[in-house]
Design brief:
The complex is a heterodimer of chains A (107) and B (202). Chain A is an all-alpha fold and 107 residues long. Chain A is built from four helices and no strands. Chain A has two domains: 42 residues; 63 residues. The chains are: A mainly alpha (107), B mainly alpha (202).
Chain lengths: 107, 202
């Protein structure tokens, strides 16, 4: 490979490796700061949503570090899939319950 | 410019362009959230303004996008330049030493080698879960909103019909009273009530 190709890909690799945690960290910090400042109303949290938010950030960070460690895009392990599936399922279940009367109730 | 130099230029330019675009998009999203231009204040509440499933989809999309680009650049550098001697390969050499393997003789000689796209089937699970959750949630929310709106429209129409019927009865009653009392014509030409409700007779 020509040296400029190696240099460009090395630079892109380093930027991508740094951008992932920066993006995740900045989003996480933004959510935390908005929670502490009261902008993100955690008094109106409905069940399942807080859990899903935590699991989302945790899964994304775990997937990122696993990718760094393994050198390829890994298949999520059953624990991560169970956590994500359960959180999304609970979230959707509560959303369905909130809209149950509108969907299936007598109007 | 021959074919090999074109390929070399593409291999050098494309990763830089893609990472700049991706990073700019990510930075803009983060900035909009920080500056409240993108409102996530109702992310955890029961509101259609901010969707938690969509937020999850956004996070996984960017994480997998950065990961995919990183792996692809790693493979280009590693397969093309001899792996451990490059900066990128050295950065994750310890973690991937047992899977990366040695550089091929062709790459060591500076000849471009075939580079396969990374297997992304694992990432499809994450994207599938978040996209499926988003789609289901959207369907439930939209169906619920539509049912509520239809119920309101039906209730309003029924209330309007009841009011119109009541006004029409009053109009007919007045017309009959006028006719019985020796009115000028005594002919009812319209029973449709006007907005004022008292002009429906001749």
């Amino acid at each position: 490979m020509p040296p400029d190709v190696i240099f460009a890909n090395t630079l892109a690799f380093d930027l991508a490796r740094a951008a992932g945690p920066l993006f995740l960290g900045a989003l996480f910090l933004a959510v935390l700061l908005k929670m502490t400042s009261g902008t993100l109303n955690i008094g109106a949290v409905t069940p399942g949503r807080g859990q899903l938010l935590i699991v989302t950030f945790g899964s994304a960070a775990a997937y990122w570090f696993t990718t760094i460690q393994s050198g390829h895009l890994p298949r999520p392990d059953p624990v991560m899939l169970s956590l994500l599936g359960a959180s999304n399922g609970v979230h959707l279940g509560f959303k369905l319950a909130e809209n149950w009367s509108a969907l299936f109730g007598k109007t | 410019m021959d074919a090999s130099s074109t390929v070399a230029f593409a291999l050098a330019a494309v990763p830089i362009v893609v990472i700049v675009i991706l990073a700019a998009l990510a930075a803009k999203i983060v900035w909009q959230i920080w500056s409240d231009e993108m409102d996530i204040s109702k992310l955890l509440s029961n509101s259609a303004d901010a969707s938690l499933s969509r937020f999850q989809f956004l996070i996984f999309t960017f994480v997998i996008g950065f990961s995919y680009l990183m792996i692809l650049c790693f493979e280009v550098v590693h397969n093309g330049a001899g792996g451990a001697s490059s900066v990128a390969a050295h950065a994750i050499n310890a973690a991937t030493a047992n899977t990366a393997g040695a550089a091929s003789p062709a790459s060591a000689a500076g000849v471009p080698v075939r580079i396969d796209l990374p297997d992304a089937s694992g990432a499809a699970w994450l994207l599938g879960i978040s996209a499926g959750g988003y789609a289901l949630g959207k369907g439930i929310q939209t169906s619920g909103d539509t049912s509520t709106k239809n119920a309101e429209v039906t209730a309003n129409a029924a209330a309007g019909a009841v009011a119109a019927a009541a006004t029409g009865q009053q109009t007919v009653a007045r017309t009959v009273t006028t006719t019985a009392g020796g009115g000028a014509s005594g002919t009812v030409t319209s029973t449709t009530p006007s907005p004022e409700g008292d002009d429906g007779e001749t």
